[in-house]
Design goal:
- With 261 residues, the protein is mainly α.
- The strands form 2 sheets. It has a two-stranded antiparallel sheet with strand order 1-4. Strands 2-3 form a two-stranded antiparallel sheet.
- α2 packs antiparallel against α6, α3 runs antiparallel to α4 and α5 packs antiparallel against α8.
- The radius of gyration is 23 Å and the shape is globular.
- About 20% of the residues have low confidence.
- 63% of the residues lie in helices and 3% in strands.
- The protein folds into 2 domains: 183 residues, Up-down Bundle (Growth Hormone, Chain: A); 37 residues, no CATH class.
């Protein structure tokens, strides 16, 4: 015999609970820590959009050649990519606060020195800043992957980065660089990094645990493949969501908790 629920709505299903905004019962990052991690990604993510203004200012002061502009931009991108890759392979998601502080200090030194040097020294300094940025972006990626609503976190990050980059580009191109030169632009980046240091110093230790495992899902980039039609026909022979399917990606692989201490 069915028991009436007297109009009381039953608790959320596991599928609903995954998309609720409440923290995971096992613990998570505080609001200040979440804002600090996203702010780190926003700050370092703005630099590629500002490179034409900043490096162009160094070119206008005859402190870089046209070839060295490309070398500096490439060195920063390579440093970022290598740092993210090596961090993912070698570092553990533990004691992230000291790691983030060390990376920000390296970025402060690189940005502050770039405004006063020239030539190949600028190329080296941009590589150092790229490596520091890569470590901070690795922390952001780990935070996003373990968040209860990763899509929401990524949307906040992209929106904030685009807005801040647009505002800083106007500020640099219209006022700072014409008045103070490229040194003033890199001083602004140094101040932004210093603000991150103050924000991180107020964050206490915490642990962000992985989200509950979800069933396997088709890879969305399969439709971009030139052989997508044939691939879709092959996939019909595999059970939907099966782990044996070559097109399935499972998030059931356990992730280590992200420790901020």
């Amino acid at each position: 015999m069915a028991i009436p629920n007297n109009g009381v709505r039953p608790g959320p299903s596991p599928g609903e609970e995954r998309f609720m905004a409440t923290p995971h019962p096992s613990g998570g990052f505080t609001l200040s820590q979440s804002v600090a991690v996203i702010a780190m990604g926003v700050t370092v993510g703005c630099i590629p959009a500002l490179q034409p203004i900043l490096l162009g200012g160094l070119l206008g002061q005859h402190r870089l050649t046209a070839a060295q502009i490309g070398q500096a931009a490439t060195a920063e991108a390579i440093g970022m990519a290598l740092a993210m890759t090596l961090a993912a392979l070698l570092l553990k998601p533990d004691r992230l606060k000291p790691l983030a502080l060390a990376a920000i200090l390296a970025a402060v030194a690189a940005n502050a020195a770039t405004g006063f040097l020239s030539g190949f020294a600028v190329v080296l300094l941009r590589a150092v800043n790229g490596a520091a940025s890569g470590v901070l972006l690795w922390i952001l990626v780990g935070f996003t992957a373990r968040a209860m609503a990763p899509g929401r976190v990524f949307a906040i990050y992209v929106t904030a980065q685009a807005s801040v980059a647009f505002a800083m580009s106007i500020l640099l191109s219209q006022w700072i660089v014409p008045a103070l030169g490229a040194a003033g632009g890199y001083a602004l980046l140094t101040l932004a990094d210093a603000a991150l240091l103050m924000a991180l110093s107020s964050c206490r230790g915490s642990t962000l645990r992985p989200r509950p495992a979800t069933p396997a899902a088709p890879r969305p980039w399969l439709a971009l493949s030139p052989c997508s039609a044939a691939a879709c026909s092959w996939r019909r022979s595999w059970p939907s969501g099966s782990m044996s399917s070559p097109w399935a990606v499972s998030s059931a692989t356990p992730r280590r908790p992200l420790a901020w201490r």
